[in-house]
């Protein structure tokens, strides 16, 4: 006789109370009420649990029984199907987009600067996690990603939209590599086919014609000498602002005329050797009585144990009248333009700019022979700057 809701409400006798088709309600001596189903698969008797009454109604229990019988009719074990579904749910709960993204960030931490890591996480927290951070990464569709980046673009943040898309694609690549998903559905998401064409604004750089006036302004700069000399070294070495701000005396060998920047301070995480020109050596010698008793070559005038702040260079340039018209990072573009136009070997210029060669054999070659060529290049560049300071507008030609 089948069970009814009325009978179930009044049923208190411990034991198994059948409903039909293998389904029964088991009442324990302690009063627990559990839906079970008995079935046979591959000659073995098995049982499945369907939940607790009345949270699981008799109607729901029968629906689950019928689904189990359909699986048996197909030749599948409903108990194993249930276990697989439960395992999948547990796996997906541990592999939400946010969980995988945080693992990706932790993986990148060893090769990124702290500021890059913080900015990337902040971007994900602001735009991506609210949209589908708690969704299993396997369930994040291309449509949801496209809709997200288009919404970001629509608010006038095209550059942010592009970076968000690139980060999402990188996270999916990481997920496939580390077996968090079986395939990467984001492969065909091409930025140019989703986002509108962007006008790229490169960092403002001085022109060759503006260089003499800038050098005179730098010589007349009335601010902190640490900043002025750091700007001079920045120009003379064609390095990045962060590499100069973090320069340490332990990295510099004035006798050998080499500045050895360790890999952990380089953007590409490769050690970079900078040949020092006569002029660069002179500037560093001027810094010795100012900071030579400390670790940093260019410490903050307010906090000697810390380097010059990130905005120091551009603030100084603004004081000299170059706000929005030139940036400290732009000196690298000026160096590259002048050196290329003057006939220097492009590979030597790129190596000096630390645009790392990916081919290991060629990279080893660059570390050796290119160092002597870069010494000549940087001495030529320093002499070129001196000529511009003196008002000579005729560029020196590269040595044959």
Give a short overview:
The chain has a four-stranded antiparallel sheet with strand order 1-2-3-4. A three-stranded antiparallel sheet has the order 5-6-7. It is built from 16 helices and seven strands.
What labels would you give this structure?
7 strands, DNA polymerase, domain 1, alpha+beta, 400 residues, 3 domains, 16 helices, Double Stranded RNA Binding Domain, 4-stranded antiparallel β-sheet, single chain, hpI Integrase, Chain A
List the helices and strands and how they pair.
Elements: H1 5-10, E1 15-20, E2 23-27, E3 33-41, E4 44-52, H2 58-73, H3 78-93, H4 97-108, H5 114-132, H6 142-154, H7 158-177, H8 191-194, H9 211-219, H10 225-237, H11 241-245, E5 252-253, E6 258-261, E7 272-275, H12 278-291, H13 312-322, H14 330-341, H15 346-352, H16 360-389
Antiparallel strand pairs: 1-2, 2-3, 3-4, 5-6, 6-7
